[in-house]
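Morning - nicotinamide-adenine-dinucleotide inputs below, output right after.
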Amino acid sequence: MNLLITGGAGFIGSHVVRLFVEVYPHYHVYNLDALTYAGNLQNLADVEGRENYTFLRGDITDASYLEGIFQEHKFDAIIHLAAESHVDRSIAGPMAFVQTNVMGTVNLLEACRRSWAGDYAGKLFYHVSTDEVYGSLGAEGLFTESTPYDPRSPYSASKAASDHFVRAWHHTYGMPVKLSNCSNNYGPNHFPEKLIPLAIHNIKAGKPVPVYGRGENVRDWLYVKDHAQAIDAIFHRGKVGQTYNVGGVNEWRNIDLIELLCDVMDEKLGREKGDSRKLITFVKDRAGHDARYAIDSSKLMEELGWEPSVTFEEGLRLTVDWYLANEGWLEEVTSGHYRDYYREQYEER
Ligand code: NAD
């Protein structure tokens, strides 16, 4: 099988690429990535050079480029992860999200439709999406696969649009598609603009740890390697035309999560318990900040037998260990543009 994975140099994509290259040596995995600020080939240094792996640098907003690689490599299936993925950046500059997440997805659907030319035997378009498309929950309830879409940020609106286009290509053209909507991921290779790696980075450096509002927003967290396993299960055993919610059954208020992380960091860095908590600094809340996301993954668990392999405490420790052992990675991704972004986001408010 010639398998195209988009966004494979990013956080989740790199774990998915590694899993497929290692577990399915008879597949040829093509990783298509534009290498934006969020893409980093260092994430796949151990995979580079493997016989069943090829990196393609390209942009999914470029339809004629896609046409060319589809003609050349005759992909059988695609796992689509490439996206602009950070809510705060979508508030500051929404157009890149429309271009990549909406236009880029439609370009890929069209490239598949032309390349497969109505012969869909053995073909699959698997679209990876987010639970943020469902909007915001009150104190009770969970997102299920039939929760109506109610996106609030430019990021979630662009992902919601892309989900609708994928389903439209299934219903209109008969293209075999699968979708999954996942909660917040954490783990190795996470870009430090996101809550957990940003907090690890700042706690280590003794810098203030910014927390939006009063830290009361609730999120469900899933270890990234468990998300990659879920994608594997859905890709191979999920039903065509179906959507699967993926979550960790693991809800945390941001402030409780950060306090737990501070305690783990105190222990790992040999600091006095409570020292790192002093770094917590509340900052002006994000515009339109959704109160609570919580996801019901029972369809995935019952139909495909998937479940998270680690508890949150275990996953968080693995994550902290990885960041402490990979200072070079962090140094590299936090240089240059990232510093300007960080200043605008948290220091000039
Ligand atoms: P990421 O920002 O870490 O990685 C995105 C990758 O896409 C990067 O390597 C980037 O270079 C690439 N990319 C961006 N624009 C591109 C373009 N125009 N052409 C080609 N490549 C491009 O994102 P992530 O956190 O790994 O998320 C991956 C996918 O999973 C996204 O679709 C996201 O919506 C979804 N998702 C993420 C989470 C999460 O918690 N991170 C949760 C649920 C779903």
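Note: The domain at 2-186+221-246 is CATH 3.40.50.720 (Rossmann fold).

O.
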